[in-house]
Amino acid sequence: MPQIRTIVSALILAGSTTFASAWDALPSTAPAPANNPTTAAKVELGRILFHDPRLSSTGTVSCASCHNVMAGGEDSRPNSMGVHGQTGGRSAPTVWNAAFSKVQFWDGRAPTLEAQAAGPVTNPIEMGMKSWDDVVVRLKAIDGYRVAFKKAFPDEAISEDTATKAIASYERTLITPNSPYDKFAKGNKSALTAQEKRGLKKMAEIGCLSCHSGAAFNGNGEFREFPTIFNSYLEKQYQFSNDKGLFEVSNKKEDEHFFKIPTLRNIALTAPYFHNGTVKTLEKAVKVMATVQLGRKLSSAEVEDIVAFLNALTGEFPNQTLPMLPATPGKTFN
Amino acid sequence: MPQIRTIVSALILAGSTTFASAWDALPSTAPAPANNPTTAAKVELGRILFHDPRLSSTGTVSCASCHNVMAGGEDSRPNSMGVHGQTGGRSAPTVWNAAFSKVQFWDGRAPTLEAQAAGPVTNPIEMGMKSWDDVVVRLKAIDGYRVAFKKAFPDEAISEDTATKAIASYERTLITPNSPYDKFAKGNKSALTAQEKRGLKKMAEIGCLSCHSGAAFNGNGEFREFPTIFNSYLEKQYQFSNDKGLFEVSNKKEDEHFFKIPTLRNIALTAPYFHNGTVKTLEKAVKVMATVQLGRKLSSAEVEDIVAFLNALTGEFPNQTLPMLPATPGKTFN
User: What tens digit of pLDDT does each residue of A99-155 get?
Assistant: First the structure.
């Protein structure tokens, strides 16, 4: 079922100084689905919900705990820590620019940000709520949420549907524009250094960009098999193929080891790397990808060039006001 | 060693409409110690450190995890949850207006905000760092922190001393002015309802304010014995005296069951109540205090009046910008 995208013609590089116009800068707004157009009231409600640890059974884990917007949009851990200190097998993907992916979760099992937002809340090792019904009971008990939901969804009730729509609307605002690469893509030829340009060129040459294509360098979030070259020592060292990706949920042979193509935007800020978070540094991650995915052995200089370019994909993180969580005067859930 | 403060004369109430001038509104700035004058650069650094989960061994717990400034300055839990889901025996006190207390922690063992800030970081069940030396190694490895510390402390190194000074400087800005009570104290007689005034009068009458005195309703953070009336059924039900307060650290007989007087500011937002967080609602907390501390049995109407007044101690929480945590490009601690 996963579609394999061919290398887009834009990626054919004529030379380090002439390819700027073929590249896409990150859009300043993200597309929203027809059934959930972005509004200011939804974004504001979503920002609050995203940061509210009362969406977890213990009152200690919010969406932001693992997708920390103050950092790179994730938690800098190999795997995240949910309620009662539990950990799972995958590394939290960044929420920044997640809006530019067609599918969500490492295995791409969620087709929308809305569907993704529903998952962790009731996952027993993540936020641990027994059901969304229980979440809705909590939210309905909080005056401030009743007001905020009414504003965001005047004709709808507080529900899993409206809560996840609000969270997704907020996430669609999490965009990091104006990286050195974006400035370069918009025509400022000196926005990238010579080394960064060499890195970009090398990435196109060896095939990185056949998957990591598009403005978010994620093939728009399509699926790819990973790793493609099994039985290398690196593959064994980092145990990539223990996790069968989409197969784990679909149970279909053809989905084995298929993962969503992750964005390379802000990749320098989201160590450790890969779905299982086993690779600690960006240098190592580049070497690993070249080896297990492309069958290439890169020189140290080539790795350094690529890492330099990847650092040029770090964008500007817009200032955000810390939301005040609506209070439950005089009582508590825990 | 704890000093017992006598009832301040300001608390003698002549009548519900005439006592406004005797009361203090919350100051708009907090005093700072001579060796740590508040500066904008320290506050900014402190805001970042306060929100950085990399100050914990797992990278999952920041000061803000248990002292959530987006909520009532604490975590709405009976006891806080530290690294690996561990919990302790005490409830996190609010960080809002903590600057107006002379001592910190429930047992008042820290004489300053600076000293308090040092504690949880290396507490094995809170943030779990092995030592402050380990914290300093982490901070020194982060470019952004090197710059921010240089700005805040031009002539000093990154250290436990400078880090805790910055955190304390930030905490001194966490003040919630303009509660209905403050408006009343400043002369707006209609800022409190008749019920709220009745509640305040009742509190003075029965003796609540003999401890909860001063602008922060905390006796400036002096010590008191709690509970004073042992062996009541409520005292047994909530197991207050299992925790011996300051005695637990001083081992001095005269410190047994002595605790810091907690602020009543924003008390409606900080359920559950008491040092062990066993009391879930404000109504119950008022009844308990009247019984185990003052030997009074209040009517339901009296409890309602007092709760109404306590709600009038909820102030305005100043908007804050979410800090961006300095990045560690391409690498991670966990």
Answer: 999 999 999 999 999 999 999 999 999 999 999 999 999 999 999 999 999 999 999
* Chain A residue nearest residue B280, CA to CA: A331
Q: Has residue A325 got a pLDDT over 80?
A: yes
Taking a C-beta distance cutoff of 8 angstroms, is the pair B127, B55 a contact?
yes
- Regarding whether A120 and A51 lie in a shared domain, the answer is yes
**Beta bridge pairs of residue A320:** B322
Query: Under an 8 A CB cutoff, do A322 and B53 touch?
Result: no
Sign, CA dihedral B19-B21-B23-B28, equals positive
Whether A60 contacts A83, CB under 8 Å: yes
Residues in chain B within 8 Å Cβ distance of A85: 58, 83-86
Residues 13-42 of chain A with CB under 8 A from chain B are: none
pLDDT band at B329 (very low <50, low <70, confident <90, very high): confident
d(CA A165, CA A162): 5
pLDDT digits (tens, 9 = 90+) for B284-313: 999 999 999 999 999 999 999 999 999 999
Q: What is the CA radius of gyration of chain B?
A: 21
Instruction: State whether A53 and A157 are in the same domain.
Output: yes
d(CA B306, CA B178): 19
Residue whose tokens read 């203090």: B24
Active site residue A126: yes
Cα(B191)–Cα(B288) distance, integer angstroms = 28
A147 and A197 assigned to the same domain: no
pLDDT in tens, A26-57: 999 999 999 999 999 999 999 999 999 999 99
- Give the pLDDT confidence of B167-223 residue by residue, as tens digits: 999 999 999 999 999 999 999 999 999 999 999 999 999 999 999 999 999 998 899
**Cβ <8 Å between B280 and A331:** yes
**Is residue A124 less than 8 Å (CB to CB) from chain B?**
no
User: What CATH number is given to the structural domain containing A139?
Assistant: 1.10.760.10
Residue type, B22: A
The parent domain of residue A233 ranges over 9-27+176-311
Q: Which of B77, B282, B332 sits opposite A271 (nearest CB)?
A: B332
Cross-chain Cβ contact A269/B65 below 8 Å: no
Q: Number of CB pairs < 8 Å for A and B? A: 133
B328 vs A contacts (CB less than 8 Å)? 76, 271
Residues of B with Cβ-Cβ distance to A72 under 8 angstroms: 327
A83 contacts on B by Cβ (under 8 Å): 85
Whether B11 has a pLDDT exceeding 70, the answer reads no
Asked if B272 is an interface residue toward chain A (Cβ–Cβ < 8 A), one would say yes
Residue A330 lies in a domain: no
Count of domains for chain A: 2
* Residue at a domain's end among B171, B203, B225: B171
CB contact under 8 A, B333 and A71: no
In angstroms, rounded to a whole number, what is the distance separating the alpha carbons of residues A162 and A160?
6
